[in-house]
Amino acid sequence: MLIKNRPSWFLNENESTPEAIYKQRREIVKKLGLAAAVTPFATQANAGLFDVFSPAKDETPYQDPRIALKGIDSKYSTQGLSLTPEDKVLTYNNFYEFGTSKGQPAELAKGFKTDPWTITIDGEVAKAVTLDMDDVMKSMQIEERIYRHRCVEAWSMNVPWLGFSLASLLKLVQPTSKAKYVAFETLYDPERIPGQSSYSVGGGIDYPYVEGLTIAEAMNPLTLMTVGLYGKTLAPQNGAPLRLIVPWKYGFKGIKSIVKIHLLEEQPPTTWNKLGPNEYGFYANVNPNVDHPRWSQASERFIGEGSIFSSRRQDTLMFNGYGEEVASLYKGLDLKRNY
Ligand SMILES: Nc1nc2c(c(=O)[nH]1)N[C@H]1C(S)=C(S)[C@@H](COP(=O)(O)O)O[C@H]1N2
Ligand SMILES: [Mo]
Fold first, then answer.
1. Which residues, in sequence order, are CB contacts of 90 under 8 Å at separation 6+?
2. Is residue 63 very low, low, confident or very high in pLDDT (cuts 50, 70, 90)?
3. Residue-level pLDDT at 44
4. Which segments cross the bilayer (predicted)?
């Protein structure tokens, strides 16, 4: 469900630090004479309670920050698979900086300002640059690419993204011959991103979230710098204003809200690999034959129409169905070892 209006527990932007949220909750708990055994952050279960007793409601209607965006059709779009409904793409998210449970990022990222925004591209390049996101939007040819989106948690979607190839952006900076890898970094701003200052929201991950690709993966035409979905610019919970989509890899490679792109000679560290090196590799290519230690990757729950809990299962495809375009990148590489 896409919640159009702010829930009553959602604070004004200038108050929305984790401390402020926590203090407001504590105040309410005190007023009610309730025991303090209430979690500091609203969950779906207790939101109703606070709805009833919340003293001052913010009556300003919530303004959807997304704006209309068109893209030209792409030959790379998925054929013959229905789309995941927009409301599911907007609410069934992983963006741990805004909460570790599904539905939480859509709420906690509301009001997250992504304008102005700059992206720095530097390292092994002839021309390092800092680009204004507005200029990126004006200068890049936006395409619509319908891609399969497969999370390592064994669910999948089919999403009409809008974006441009990473290769077209990297050409601007002219990578040097030493540029063997590309590293990406999410914005680090604990004052605006609750999970970066609160363990209970962000799961205690070492932020900023970082990801990486080999230069060949980065230059593959499928690799998409994504700025929108479903005919609009990205919502904050989907990684506004700019995120990566690498459709043949597990979703965690698709780093959100990027501010830095650094080209380098050595393989860069990546967030999930640092957290669990035997569970999450650097490559993270979708592969039905290589199971995650805790679950099988042979099939996936496709998030479509109807309840998430009754999603149908479908077989997982090698390289998520993009083998024709990318299998040659991994010739001679042992994909069981290099998961
Ligand atoms: N910065 C950041 N990027 C992130 C994540 C995250 O927690 N933080 N989660 C990843 C995971 S696990 C997935 S599956 C996708 C989910 O993207 P979506 O919510 O737009 O579907 O984002 C990826 N990018
Ligand atoms: Mo994921």
1. 2, 106, 235, 237, 238
2. confident
3. 41
4. none
Mean pLDDT of 66-93: 97
Determine whether the annotation assigns residue 96 to a binding site: yes
* Cβ 179 vs Cβ 125: under 8 Å: yes
| Domains of the chain (ranges, CATH numbers) | 13-330 (3.90.420.10)
Is 205 marked within a binding site?
A: no
Ligand nearest the Cα atom of residue 184: 1
* pLDDT confidence of residue 57: 58
Q: What is the DSSP string of 244-264?
A: EE-TTB-GGGS--SEEEEEEE
Q: Which atom of ligand 1 is nearest to the CA of 149?
A: 21
Over residues 120-179, the pLDDT tens digits come to 999 999 999 999 999 999 999 999 999 999 999 999 999 999 999 999 999 999 999 999
Residue 119: burial class (beta carbons within 10 Å; 0-12, 13-18, 19+): buried
Q: What is the pTM of this model?
A: 0.84
Q: Rounded CA gap, 330 and 339, in Å?
A: 11
Say whether pLDDT at 182 is over 70.
Answer: yes
Backbone angles phi, psi at 150, to 5 degrees: -120, 115
Q: Quick check: CB of 256 below 6 Å from ligand 1?
A: yes
Q: Whose CA is nearest to atom 8 of ligand 1?
A: 95
The CA-based dihedral angle spanning residues 268, 255, 293, 206, taken in that order and rounded to the nearest 10 degrees: 70
- 245 Cα–ligand 1 center, Å: 10
Confidence of residue 72 (pLDDT cuts 50, 70, 90): very high
Q: Is the CB of 209 under 6 A from ligand 1?
A: yes
Q: What is the pLDDT of residue 125?
A: 98
250 touches ligand 1 (CB under 6 Å): no
Q: Which residues contact 97 (CB under 8 A, 6 or more apart)?
A: 105, 186, 193, 194, 195, 196, 202, 207, 209, 257
Tell how far the Cα of 278 is from the centroid of ligand 2, in angstroms.
16
CB of 94 shorter than 6 A to ligand 1: yes
The ligand whose atoms approach the alpha carbon of 157 most closely is 1
> Which residue has the CA at smallest separation from atom 12 of ligand 1?
252
Two tokens, residue 139: 């200068």
